[in-house]
Fold each of these.
Amino acid sequence: MKEKKKIGSKIFMALMMIFFYAPIVYIIIFSLNSSRSLTHFDGFSLRWYEKMFSDRTMMQSIVYTIVIAVLATIISTIVGTITSIGLSKSKPILKKTVEQINNLPIMNPEIVTAIGLLMFFSALGAKKGFVTLLLAHIMFCIPYVMLSVMPKLRSLDANLADAAMDLGATPFQALTKVIVPQIMPGIVSGALIAFTMSFDDFVISYFVTGNGVSNISILVYTMSKRVNPSINALSTLVIFIITVALIIVNVIPIIKQKKEKRTR
Amino acid sequence: MNQFKRMAYPYVAWIAVMILAPMLMIVMYAFIEKGNDVTTFRFTISNFTKFFSDKVYIDVLYRSLYVAILTTIICLLIGYPTAYIISRAKPKHRTWLVLMITFPTWINMLVRTYAWLGILQDNGIVNTILGLFGIGTVKIIYTNFAVILGMVYNFVPFMILQIYSSLEKMDKSYIEAASDLGANKYQCFWRITFPMSLPGVISGITLVFLPAVSSFFIPKLLGGGQYVLIGNVIETQFLTAGNWSFGSAISLIMAIIIMISLYITRKLDTDPAAAKGGA
């Protein structure tokens, strides 16, 4: 009876994994197809990759995606960390209010945030493009950074900075040499979340950008109306980048741990 | 210590401008007539009456709710067993299984949705396999089924991870105690495990329903151009029709519907029957 149940749950899990990974495997396989067909594999070829790399709009969208993601990550991580530290010393009312407002872009459907920003930017007379895109990404990334930094600060001894300053550290040194190293894991995971949020964003980017500036998501959305196997190549590239990033993030701490063990 | 306080001030100004001002603009535009802008403010509720008096929009609202609720139910039905099986696996396998469920969510949603477009084609893989069993071409792409499949695919990991984390936190000794006291497996699950995992179920439902009811690219990609959900109406109003007031009113209606459904699901969480198990 028990054996039967175990086999049942194994089959169920296997089916779930097929469900999750079939589309991903499908994309990778068909990016190597030699024909235009999205349904029949007619032989191995790299022609869609060649086409992707020679397509200016595709390469541009990849560059925009990466540049925006890197800039948004750096800025939102710095601002989010500084603000979190400031809030941890502020009155609870201010802290609560900021947390509540931060929740708006997290809890609201993305499309609501998107149209709000669209109207806001045009009310300011701002030209839709790179700057509005970057501002929007910074706006929705900071709350996630703070969400992962704040708990680390809460578990920190409140007198730590004072102790450092009593021992002769300047406020800046107390921050950079004492507080920041203590909350580093929170900052790193916040930065990672910010990067993937920005890298994958579609809805908000789609509404606030213009003038030919588009990211990978927007490009896939606009190109998918026609059959275009280059999208498969682009998608495979995206899958590859994310996989490598995840491996680096997960493997580096393990290597570090091993090194520390050895030096001990 | 006090000098650190000031570090929060720039961000307070930032959220006032970048988060609150846009939200206020949605509320304001929802109540002004088309063609007006904030400077020539003229209050009206015509945007709302337009939505509720037109059968086309009411149908869209119904379809959006139908698709979102069905998606949520399916996610719960396949997500719960998945989370349950993972929580019963060996600790070493558990980490791997969680990682394998999480990994696809890191890949661009548009890319993953686009993949289904090829799979579900009339001459795609699914229909080829069905053909091997002698079943003729089944129309899948550009149907309700394709849209719901796309949504389940994109959102079910949220459900699984939420339920799993509440199942994992659970104290297993409750189940041992219950079976010692003579409860059978069935009773153990429905009287103990399930009520104790309810917080995870509730937040899972929230995390699936919210994006499902407001999604607009999944219906566009897998439902085709004719398939319209409430998110698509908002998109059209802003990007092609240029009627911001009507678009804002619709988003406000959607936001209110979401708030009501969140309130109802929270209510379920504090249900006395659930509280009994969670004690």
Amino acid sequence: MRNRTGLIGGALLVALMLLTLVGPLVVPPETQAHVDRIYQAPTLLHPLGTDFQGRDTLVMLIHGGRDVILIALITGLLTTLIAVLVGTLSALLGGVADSLLIGVADIWLTVPRFIVLVVAASLVRLENVWTLAILLAVMGWPGLARQIRAQMLSLRNREYIEAARMLDLGLVQIVFRELLPNMSAFIAIAMIAAMTQAIYAQTGLVFLGLVPFGNNWGVMFSLAYAKNAIYLPNAAWSLLAPMGAIMLFQLALVWLARALEERFNPQLRAGRPG
Amino acid sequence: MSEHTPLDPQLTLAVRDLSVAYPSQRGLVQAVRHVSFDVRRGESLALIGESGAGKTTLGLSLLRLLPPNAQIGGGQISYQPAPPAECAPVAAINVLQLTPRQLRRFRWQECAMVFQAALNAFNPMLRIADQFADTARAHGYLRGRALALRAAELLRLVRLDPDRAWRAYPHELSGGMRQRALIALSLLLTPQLLILDEPTTALDILTQHTIIEVLKDVGSAFGLAMIVISHDLTLAAELADRVATLYAGMIVESGDTRTVFRRPAHPYTAGLLNAVPTLAAHKQELRSIPGAPPDLIDRPHGCAFHPRCPLASEQCRRVEPPLEAIGDGVQVACWHWRSARAMFVKRET
Amino acid sequence: MTIPLIELEHVRRNFTIQRRQLTAVDDLSLRIQPGEIVCLVGESGCGKTTTGKLIAGLLPPSAGSIRFLGQSISQLRGAAYRRYRLGVQLIHQDPYASLNPAHTIYDTLAAPLRRHRLTKDERATRARVRELLTIVDLTPPDDLLGKYPHQLSGGQRQRVAIARALTVGPSFLIADEAVSMVDVSIRISLLNTLLRLKEQIGLGVLFITHDLALANYFAWAGRIGVMYLGRLVELAPTPLLIAQPQHPYTQALLAALPAVDPDLNRQKAPQLRSADVPSLLRLPGGCSFHPRCPRCQLAQCEMQVPALVAFRDGSAVACHPVQHERRAEENSDVQP
């Protein structure tokens, strides 16, 4: 099994990113409706068929992935950043500061995330990738922060950290040189988890029509569903294609995470005597 | 039970030419190579060596407790149960060929193993009483009150207070107490052979002393044969009638404990003895053995010990010495055993 | 009389476990001179590791004072604090946890050198790292610079830990069971390295162990302190303690030591009344050893905690019957 899954996941991710970020520069977008070509089954000309407006599904897919992937990336990064900051401060400061920060995280965790998103969507116009990403990050950091804090607390008592303290290496250096590098795998995997979360949230919001994006996979899916694609045989493609794209993206991320985990763990355990 | 040539009735266990290997990323780890030894009735044998010498693998293989990826490359493990009457014939059991059902009966009823007193040797979620009950139930043994009485007897034998230990959880007992409880549990079905893996490692001096006393008591009370696996030479000296030194998965010296420890014939045994401090340590010349344990995947040519041996010669580098009897019941695998004996620093006591 | 390097005076350390209080170290007084070797021996739970941590400044005492070169460590600031912090270093027991797995050996040793600007430039740092590795007998040093901890054996890791401690030029090293997790045949050479460092740079060492035979070897020129349930019960120069142990607990420890020569005739000490150590949460009253003590005869033993009293031959014991006997022989109020 080993790193093959990771390799496939990584390759898939790169392929998807190329498709959706570079693809639009190469393939012209579909801007017009072609009423004579609606709901066609896949042919050589239209490998994934056409949608309810006669637009080529594959072209739509290529142009529709940008938002999804960008939001996933940005949200993942932001969530991880906030969580690492809060988790680290909480674990290292301890005492009142710790209780306060963790208390906030706990309360935040109990708030039903999706409902807040829906409410926020109705109050603020979520037309910008960044706005949605920030919103998702703000909602998503508490869970990760708790995990980071727990990991920090356990690492803090390791002997090599104690040695670093005795050598007076300084708090900043201890955090950045001693503690965080040992958590890099953990953080990477956590970031990937944050990305998958973002995709779910985003797709849900789009499906409910709460996000006025132009065209993306979620929108494609939503429109196809709204236009009763499930009742028409050939139309299934316009429904399944965006869904499939989202799933592939998730799968790529999950495989990558799994391979990372496998790769980092044995190395840390390799030193144990037999 | 499969039969073969009856063994010398004095033997409880006879191991012949046993080899065990594990596949790993870098290659095949040969943990045990062509190991042969005997254990007589009521006798205790110590297998000594350092980490990575294959001792634990050897111990586990006797009960077939090896992980699934272990490959037994050949050899025979023959166990001979105690005869029911003085001259009744007894069939030897070929352990490597037992069926799963026969193996279950073999384990714990004929041969039991005691691991290190680590917190996870017992199930941390169950009381000691429950662990006893589980084992008894699994082997169709006593239950309820009869079990409690028998267990109390055993707990007292290992110097534990039955009232305190019976209802306790493992984490409520100290390491020494856990170890004794493990010993009591292993004796539940009156096995003939007890294998102990590092029974006193990581325990304090007084606790070690108690365990040693307990094992002596237990050995004589039940006429048990024991195999003690340890890196602690002093444990072997206190407890074992005979000792076998393991290096790189092979037995390099074996014999009567007194003889081997007073006049070691293999440089590794001598090296170990020279590295163990006693109370007269300041008067001795204590020395470590240079170098590191050998790579079990890519072992050195010839004698596995030659890179670290002060007596290594060209012959040692090319040809592996066989295990040979050199008199006094001692066997050694070394081309220069005479020099090794002469070189050994006599320990002042 | 020089100022002691380390001085503990009536030091006490409590812990709260599940709302109950536990005294891990009680009324410990000890003076260690520069370049001296002291061993703390005792069984698990006796407080020796806690004592090591107290001296290392990793834990504050609950009562009493700890002084470094005459100054209380809790009151040190600035340069004086730095002198203490770098002057006292600790070697851990577990070689598999004492080095940062994410750093190469070079990184691990260079970090303190760079941080405290102990070397001029990168080349000097490299040279110093090589020098340190050679001092701890890891030769050739270049073989190890780029390696990660998991590629080294336990013994090698401990040597790197010692080298790391040496980077900041300490005057005192605390070795907390530093050889227990290392192969038997390597232990002696590690201890020999430490002894050599004592000779060469006047390094003082506190060796914490439960192995009395190792303590005997290492501290032959120094002292051994025996601890029981948080208290120091005997403290004496090693040859004296081994030849004439006075406290019944010390006598039991010596008698219990297994020996390699099966015929060795050891002094049969009177048997202890119980094999098990009482819990620190439920200490017996008076002398905490009295329920197990074969010599416990006096009512005083059950009611009064014996203090560590020093005698003219350099030994100190905390035992009522022994003190009565010896006070009859001599009068002394010398501090240990």
Amino acid sequence: MNAALGTAGVTLGLAASVIGALTLAVGLRGRRAPLLRMGRSYAFLVLGGALLAAFAMERALLTHDFSLQYVAGNGSRSTPLLYTFASLWAALEGSIILWSVVLGGWLVAVVVRFRDRLSDPLVGWATLTMLVVAAFFFALMLGPANPFKEVAGAVPADGPGPNPLLQNHPLMAIHPPMLYVGYVGFTVPFAFAVAALVTGRVGEGWLTVTRRWTLVSWGFLTTGIVLGAWWSYEVLGWGGYWAWDPVENASFLPWLTGTAYLHSVVVQERRGMLRVWNLSLLAATFSLTILGTFLTRSGVLDSVHSFTESPIGAWLLAAFAATVAVSVGLIGWRGDRLRSPGRIDSPVSREGAFLANNVVFAAFAFVVLLGTVYPLVYEALKDEPLSVGRPYFDRMTTPLALTLLFLMAVAPALPWRKASGALLRDRVQWPAWVGAGAVVVAVAAGARGLAPLVAFGLGGFAAGGALRQLVLAVRAARRAGRPLSAGLVGRTNGGMVVHLGVVVIAVAVAASSAYSHSRTATLEEGESTTVAGHTVTYLGATTETDDRKATIRAEVEVDGEVRAPALHEFRNATQAIGTPSVQWGVVEDVYLTLRAAPDGEAGAATVGVLVMPLASWLWVGGGIMALGTVLSLLPGPRRRRPEAEAPAEVVAPVDEPVAPRADPAPVG
Amino acid sequence: MRRRLPWIALVLVVGGALAIGTLDTGGGARSDEERAAHLAAGFRCPTCRGQSVADSDAPAAVAIRSQIDRQIDEGRSDAEIRDYVLSRYPRSEQVPPRSGLAGLVWVLPVAGVVLAVAGLAVGFRRWRVVADRRGASEEDRVLVERARRSS
Amino acid sequence: MGATTTARAGVRRRPALWGAVAVGVVLALFVVVLATRDPATNRTVDSPLLGEPARALAGESVLDGESFDLRDAEGRWVLVNFFATWCEPCRKEHPQLVKFAQDHQVADDARVVSVVFQDQPEDVERWFRDNGGNWPVVDTDGEIVVDWSVSGVPESYLVDPAGVVRAKIVGGVDATKLDDLLRRASAQDEGGS
């Protein structure tokens, strides 16, 4: 019953997306508006099909219907309700259902938002592109990744449950959906980029739309990535939050190109330049989401997240190749006719800063991509293995990150078009003092080492730059008789808040990488050890057994509080899985792990103690970034025409697009 | 000169703080424990994917760590220990060598950035040349002359 | 706006096209590389030991205190089995090892030796007492594990009578498959591959 329901849903989704795409294609070719408007119904049908499939799978999971192979492999009667619900995305086939639901959601959002413009070829092409992508994912579910395949032979009475690592923490219920909303959401700007290339309309309307939608996806992706880091820290127990693991990199790459786009699109709005570059960025962002999915699902790379390999790898690679072919083809064919003849007056200007920002982000993305795939390329050429680990990424990305901090400090103070040295020096003066103050405070607090101190200084500088902009905006709002909060909303001001969040994260990363202390000690009952001023005493261990696992909990007293890091021995795993115990603090986190269980009840236990300064600031920074994204999306003060700005005058932050530029005549 | 004063002060303050901050970087020989930890961190754990031998508690990682400890006690050098571990677990070096085909992974990004900056520099120069060449048109000159004469 | 750009074909006039071509070529090569890769899990079966003389393996058996040295077993096939009592798949494969040992007991052409790591001697003794198996079980502090490039348990290595490692089996042995391997490897030697 569930299998039939689910397969019906998938078939509905596939049929709707294929027929919808064909209908729109015919409508676009013959310029028949009624056909184009039908795109709306098909979008709803696609979402309906996806929701039906998801409903069927959840019903199967929650009722423990082990006749489905997916439930038999991932469900269990003894798994708590929340994790059973979340096991929809615990393994490959189910996560494709989630993908199609999210994609269906975005499709419907597009056709609803543009319901008045459905007969516009631009919207038509965008919807068509999204339907083609949806068709691919539904085809996956009818082909190599069928979640509704039934068990051959006898139906088992119970299942092994999801991977133990996925049952440890409620974050499992939020992190993947958040990530998917962002990740899949990048399909929308890509679809509009394709539409723009095909119709030749790269002007006003397309621009604002894609910018806001990209920002929403970007916000979700940022939150998803931060939640992933938090999960890694709280659940995996290796004492870190980012390992440059291929799956982490797969989610990070589109974030990098997406961030580059969010900045360079402002240059396009203001000066009409960088059109083709922006289109390329959007194409790259979407292609990276497909590539990332391929890398993590095909099994070509080792990863903590690796699902088992399956023929899905070939399909995903084909999808990546197709996406790249379409993007490169369209840009090569149309790109030159869409280029604007504008120019940038001076590198010392806000346009210049955004250009530099793009170069750095492109380099960043290149480093991460290269490091992730180089082992494959090397092996293809030399037939020898090679591994590229964390130290490579850390070393190569640190100078780029520091450059970005510097740009964040300087760019808000730079006017458009051209800046004189004197003007710039005036404007960055007090942010520079904030940076200097940060270095002094850090040194006074005992921090040593050039790299972290430079990071603190640049972080302070960047924070000063962002704060300066916010203070000016709030003052301008007051002068114009508006409430204080008006100075905090809108694209520029929200962006400054996001920058503040980034600075907080940068400082946290610098501090926790450079100043953490760790010690592994084997302690008898009652024995203590001291790490970085914290006294850690092992009190004893208790063992609990249930039908899923045996849990050994070590009671450890730290600074007067008793904490309990644990080791879980699951029946179906060869290695015990540890749960760390993290004591959060404003200044530092004390991170405890049970590395080796005591021999017998009264034996000595091996306890790992890690003191991580400023680790909790990471999550605070992530929250600030999310807040800033929301502020960015709220309507801000009306923009003044750029011609009215004088370089030396302080301008009220602007948000709405410039006075409309004429679209170039639609090409072909 | 007066405008530059605050900047000079800033440079002095930051420079001074950094000087203090980078003075005592310890140095000297590493202790055995530090050597072991440093060596272990340079290898990827064979089973656990993505963790270093220092971080992981998988049996293979524990075994490698105990061997590193033993070989440090036996007096072998860092290079010898590294060679031994690599001979047994060939894909486990965390950081690719700097030379040869593998070294490309270090060189390509730097080359990319240099090329991009060079490209931008060329672009800016060309834009400026175009602007200079365009200069002021004849009509503009006449306008300016008229305005100057009338003021 | 300046002079209109004439549509002269040439790199400077059409940067988007040439950029796209360059990127397209690189990405096409990249896709080819990706398409020809083996899945990572297949690589676990590779091992630097295959085809090489077996590394040292010597110690006292946990079960009876007798000393064992792999070099003494020359002339017979030896299945070196890395094992732990806390490892579920190891426990599952144990009966197959017992069967393999029994099958070859009469002809005495193949022996089994186990290596344990991070295990309590009492647990090992109890396990073998309850589940059979009377071959040497060598304990190690990690040296043998690392020397044999073992990544996890269970892993087994088949060493031929000449002392060369012929096969690596990951994730659980099967007695019939082991016999097959043995036969194939012997045939290879005789045929003078």
Amino acid sequence: MKKVLIVDDSPTIRKLLGYALRRKSYMTEEAEDGLDAMEKLSDSQIDLIIVDLNMPNMDGISFVKNLRSGYYNLDVPVIMLTTTSDSELKEEAYGAGINMFLTKPIKPEVLLDKIETLLGGGV
Amino acid sequence: MEENIIEREEMKEIVEEFVVEANELAEKAIQDIVAIENNPDDEIVNSIFRAVHTVKGTSSFLGFNTLSTLAHKSEDVLGMVRKGNLKPDRDVANVLLAALDLIRTLIEEIKETGAEKSDITAVTDSLELLKNPSREKLGKMLVMDSVVEVDDVHVALNKQEGGEEKKLGELLVEDKVMTQGQLKDYLKKQKTQPHKEESTIRIDVRKLDELMNLAGELVLGKNRLILLNNMVKKGGAKNNVLDNLADITNYMELVTNELQLSVMRARLVPISKLFNKVPRLVRDLAGEFGKEVELEMEGEETELDRSLIESLHDPLIHIIRNSVDHGIETPEERARKGKPRKGQLTLKAYNEGNNVIIEVFDDGKGINVEAVKKKAQEKGLMGEAELAALSTRDAMNLVFVAGLSTAAKVSNVSGRGVGMDVVRNNVEKMNGQVSIDSEEGRWTRLTLRLPLTLAIMRALIVKVLDELFAIPLNTVTELVKLKEGLIKSVEKKEVLVLRDKVIPVVDLAKVFTGQAPEVEDRYLVICNVGEKTVGVKARAVEGQEEVVIKPLGTFLGNIKGVGGATIRGDGKAILILDMSALIDLFSAQNANRKIA
């Protein structure tokens, strides 16, 4: 089973995505901000990350920058899921190394489709 | 949301989580807005922005579009503040606070009914007005309060631009689109919205661990009892069975006491939950009454039972209103008296034994004791001699008697026909006490004394007919042993004359069954709730006991005059009387009889 890390400061969003993902037989791990996500990454094998943009402590873009460089240097696929549709931020996020930029709200099945695409179809 | 991806039960859980989360975010943001108005700080502005942003994102995800729109508009304004394009002055803060209040209302609606009901156009219009640089302060506030339409404001603004020198408010009143009273009425309506008790609680993991630990100890005790039971059954070790039993009993007593304390502690929440709302309130009140107030709060970490925190909300707000409205003088008046222009309001909470004390202190004009006495005499509450014999302190505490508010001018908030008597009744309902102390011209201090918890209390166990009842001990003032002829009949009602006071006699049997019993009652329990004193007939008095209050459940929960039940040492359940409700019930029955 593939494991998805959900990084969002809203417990509601984490719960919502968690339910949807587990229904499709994904395992899930949750983190409440970028910093927390960094710790979770050191603890377990993650196959895909869904990350919010605006979070306390460490925001989504800084998180992805950290993820893609230096100590971590991981190429795990990242979906940025945010309420912002600001094109500058979107560009910045892609520059930082995300694989997909999606805006909230999103239907769970749409998100699940995208996840499957990124993971190459196999669960 | 599609049913096949997220099931209904899960959705319900998610919405519950959302309600808790969004409420916390909104409450935090409200506190922060009050803080930035006094002291603009980038980090705080950021934190408000993030909170509102999260509410927007989450609510849109769950399909709460009204909430999401409102949060979105608020976020836009906050974004301008964050970028330094908008100064977070009083007007901006007012609109943002109104928006957050509405956000909380919507969340409440979602919690109660699952749907959003409130109309947000008035508030979103005001938010839009803020984004417009040529905004007019008063107009915005009025639109926010739905007193006038945005168009009306624009008409008046155009007049001003055309050279009219009158102020916007004057123009609007001139145009007959509003009266001064309308605004006040609307504010009043907002402030009297009922306060609902929350039914979930967040608990410190350490407290939970402590409970788990004690539960473990309890299991050990149970095991020892089983062992002992087996030993007795087998007939072995006869000699030390009693010693063993005594030992286990001691152990169980220790553990259960500790468990009881822990559970009680788990229900305690810091009073900051209540105090946090005070800066906002004081700020609004000071603005409304033209006062300058410096607020100081101490002991916010003091803990209190959460149900008490909730019941304390209204009385505390009332006391603070009184202090700002009637206590603290206007800056001009203070300057004349040689006091600093800014009045001092201090809230203090601390523990004293098994009580929590809350003090509200203001350095305002204090209480005119002579005026209170005069009023009491006018109202015919006390004679001249009686008043003369009263100590200054006791005379001051007459302000808690209905109809004795001494404020010369009735104001919008404090003078709603609700006086300090209501505060006292509410506090006494919580088994608490309230008292006042003051030095005229200098200061007033109100002191609330509350029990740590409502779950356990001391009660007097009495027998009425053949049933036992528990009367909360804090209401009992004395016991009178009945003798032939002591109870007299006045207008067919039974009364007792006790030291020149006429006390109505309550026959519980009659109140509950409507029939007079054929038993001779030997005692009269004199009970005092608020200003009412009654004597309750009892056949016997069993004594004082510490009782654990158990709610009666939905079938029996609404019996008037019964506050709950408790289980005594012998395993029998008895009812606990709610004296306040009982006195009301008794008065009502008496009134009915008079008419018939």
